[in-house]
Automatic annotation (TrEMBL):
PANTHER family: PHOSPHATIDYLINOSITOL-GLYCAN BIOSYNTHESIS CLASS F PROTEIN, PHOSPHATIDYLINOSITOL-GLYCAN BIOSYNTHESIS CLASS F PROTEIN-RELATED. InterPro entries: NAD(P)-bd_dom_sf, SDR_fam. GO terms for molecular function: oxidoreductase activity. Gene3D superfamilies: NAD(P)-binding Rossmann-like Domain. It holds the Pfam family adh_short. It comes from Halomarina oriensis. This is SDR family NAD(P)-dependent oxidoreductase. Keywords: Oxidoreductase.
Amino acid sequence: MEWKTLDGAVVVLTGGTSGIGRVAAERFGELGAEVVLVGRDRNRGVATLEAVREKGGDGLFVRADLGRLDAVRGVAEAVEERYDGVDVLALNAALSLPEREVTEVPGGRVERVLLVNHLAPYLLTHELVGHLESTPPSRVVVTASGVHTRGELRLDDPTYTEEYDALGAYARSKLANVLFSTELAERLPAGVDALAYHPGFVPGTSLYRETGGAFGLAVRVASLLGVGRSVEQAGLDLVYAAGAPELADASGGYLVGRDLEAPDSRVGNDTLRERLWDESARLLDLDPDWL
Ligand SMILES: NC(=O)c1ccc[n+]([C@@H]2O[C@H](COP(=O)([O-])OP(=O)(O)OC[C@H]3O[C@@H](n4cnc5c(N)ncnc54)[C@H](OP(=O)(O)O)[C@@H]3O)[C@@H](O)[C@H]2O)c1
């Protein structure tokens, strides 16, 4: 199906208030999109919406902590109240936490990085899938990371009670992102695509603000030295992933910058993808056959 332009398109963008998402938000605005910005910080949200409007777009800011399932559902409600369809769902928000935190969800307890970075995108997609289906062609883009190759999923223990390691928790949530977007692409009807996007190492964002120790120091030095990719380029590449017509046949793919590449070989494992899908549904108390 031929892809549409983003002029007038409805783009739901989580994590659009900082870093890669902030650059993408302004570019979506420049292209004339309606941008629904989701983040926790009201000041950053309001300022970003203003910037989107200055560039020529419009939209709204929905304040939500994606670590709360009622807040995730609130985002979907705010979207449905204002728009009849969603053209792009950009699941870009993520965090990395230095210490393990555990949150209660309907199906048990879950480690918070996995909750915010994977379960929240899964739930938001569930809530908005009808709106995506109603305006084909439409696209879901999950901002993943190359670090997913280092992720270890243990689906029988979603609290990850072993000794906590910040990078390990983040990597596993990013592996979940790639498994999810690939499985989502398999299940979505024709006209709705799903892609995973890895922006490269972008030390200039706020992602590593709470990362202490040697790694935190190395990231700060890398940022000062201009190592890695610029926030600007990574944000523009996210817009490419969301709107490039040449990606119309790329559903299920994994983009590194603007290039389609092979993700970790485990992503090709149907059984693992289905187990993650079903376990995510169980934790959220959803019917796993929702798609
Ligand atoms: N930077 C890199 O090197 C790199 C590499 C690979 C992949 N990525 C991915 O790129 C994406 C964007 O990250 P970034 O580097 O641009 O980081 P960032 O500057 O820290 O931006 C993260 C965004 O997510 C939002 N967010 C975080 N936790 C949230 C929560 N609980 N509820 C709602 N919103 C939340 C933040 O908004 P609030 O603070 O207002 O909530 C912010 O807008 C992430 O998916 C990250 O995993 C980044």
